[in-house]
Amino acid sequence: MTEPIVRFQDVHKSFGDFDVLKGINLDIKPAEKVAVIGPSGSGKTTIIRMLMTLEEPSSGDIIVDGKNLWKMKKKEKMVKANEKHLREVRGDIGMVFQHFNLFPHMTILENCMTAPIHVKKENKEEVRDRSVKMLERVGLGDKLDSYPNQLSGGQKQRVAMARALVMRPKIMLFDEVTSALDPELVGEVLEVIRDLAKHEDMAMVLVTHEMDFALDIADKVLFLDEGVIAEQGTASEVIEHSENERLQGFLRRFRG
Ligand SMILES: Nc1ncnc2c1ncn2[C@@H]1O[C@H](COP(=O)(O)OP(=O)(O)OP(=O)(O)O)[C@@H](O)[C@H]1O
Question: Which of 121, 181, 198, 241 is the most buried (most CB within 10 A)?
């Protein structure tokens, strides 16, 4: 049986007295596409931030590609070793946020090239070739020398995706990547993600409010409700056929 690329084992997360995640158990297979849906405040972004190693669990284990993220720190109190370990894991994970976080003073080609060259110390020419190919792939081959402020929101989001992909991640995380876009720009961004989902064998985790999109691309959908996974299954099982009343209420609010 294939080992999961991501495993959450009884993960809890509290901020002060507030328990945001209350025992998350989750396996994601290496090429699996997972959509996370749920009401505002249910803990979706916290799961993504934990995967990105930006938040440490209050208890439980998070294992990414066989590496137990915080174990070293807990067991050996070796903070430096743990930081190295986390850096390695981060190298395998690409993330696209709601806001694009591009570097405004760099062209879009430079935006894509900077991390592989400066963080991974890769060969500049090789990175340039890969970056050009990725920008072509997201439909921006004619904008290599443009600056972020010369692009639309949808184009900026596509640069953000290309920039993450140039790092050749094993896992891509998408946190509500269309929610800051004007409605007419949503389609072009979803189209790029759809293309990646259908043709790339990396794992993908998407927090999304686009139910039809989740139905189309997700192998698995998780319904997060008040810090627990209240329902999970295939997209059709969760979005079309679940009898969970809170999930049905949540979906009705989307469908109007
Ligand atoms: N650093 C923090 N300090 C305190 N509370 C936090 C922190 N981060 C998140 N929270 C709280 O945890 C809860 C879950 O937040 P999270 O962003 O994970 O929810 P979400 O499901 O992604 O919501 P939304 O759909 O609105 O983005 C919220 O009530 C939020 O206010």
Answer: 181
